[in-house]
Design goal:
By secondary structure, the chain is mostly helical. It has one domain: MetI-like fold. It is built from 13 helices and no strands. About 40% of the residues are buried. The mean pLDDT is about 85.
């Protein structure tokens, strides 16, 4: 409880973190209460109501198929955050142990793992994402798996860099002299001290995953219609923007901005709070 109070007081001292927390709370509300907040079905098309501007009936207007944009944005929060958080969670769970192992042991397997990561990260993100999605299929979980593959090298490299720095520290040498095994040293001494950069990276990576999910859907390599997804909604209205039909793309685009901004603000706040040079001030 005292630790929670110290974290909460640290957040209150940072307006940006508080804003990010409020924006995240609004997204959680949209996820949990989507059936209550939505005014229409997010997947039911009505050709007679095609491309209607914002009104009392359709608060944010309708798209080319006559689907209610406001309701689709609310339900798309579930889809985008489900894909992004799942992808980052899988990448964290897989990337952290790999980074720990290849940082602690210097052998052919660790060198091979680094070359595999170099190979993955040498491809443009969207090109690799399109290739993987086209092979696996345009399903929600396939998009999450693709994003996880893209993020695993990031977490593994972060942990590896920390492990390389920590494994030569005096307290690790003392643990070896006391008879500690490699497993106890890695998981009992090194990993707890190496996790901070990866934990901070989680929030930033979720924001990146939201952008990548929307980007893949925008170019036709993400989820398929009529699934409500922000990037897909922006794509469906992009062609009408030149005709002055701005609401189809604008509001989903703003939803992407708000969501990514919330995780970026929380990531920056976490970086400040976990920074040892700032702990004395907080």
């Amino acid at each position: 409880m005292p630790q929670f109070q110290s974290i909460w007081s640290a957040i209150l001292r940072r307006p940006a973190a508080l804003i990010g927390l409020i924006l995240l709370f609004l997204q959680i509300v949209a996820i949990v209460f989507a059936p209550v907040l939505a005014t229409h079905s997010p997947v039911e098309a009505n050709p007679l109501a095609s491309l209607q501007p914002p009104s009392a009936e359709h608060w944010l207007g309708t798209d080319v198929s006559g689907m209610d944009i406001y309701s689709r944005i609310i339900y798309a929060t579930r889809i985008n955050l489900l894909i992004s958080i799942s992808a980052v969670a899988v990448a964290f769970v897989i990337g952290v142990p790999i980074g720990l192992l290849i940082g602690y042991y210097h052998n052919m397997a660790s060198s091979l793992a680094m070359r595999v990561f170099d190979f993955i990260q040498s491809f443009p993100v969207f090109v690799l994402g399109m290739a993987l999605v086209s092979v696996m299929g345009q399903e929600i979980w396939n998009v999450a798996i693709v994003l996880a593959v893209l993020f695993i090298p990031m977490f593994a490299r972060l942990i590896r860099a920390e492990v390389l720095s920590l494994r030569q520290r005096p307290f690790i040498s003392a643990a070896r002299c006391s008879g500690a095994t490699d497993g106890s040293i890695m998981f009992g001494h090194i990993l707890p001290n190496a996790l901070t950069p990866a934990i901070v990276q989680i929030s930033i990576s979720i924001g990146m995953a939201i952008l990548l999910t929307a980007g893949l859907s925008f170019i036709g390599a993400g989820v398929r219609m009529p699934t409500p997804e922000w990037g897909l909604m922006v794509s469906s209205g992009a062609q009408q923007m030149i005709l002055g039909i701005w609401w189809v793309s604008l509001f989903p685009g703003l939803a992407i901005v708000v969501s990514v901004l919330s995780f970026a603000l929380l990531g920056d706040a976490a970086k400040e709070m976990f920074d040892p040079t700032n702990r004395s001030r907080t």
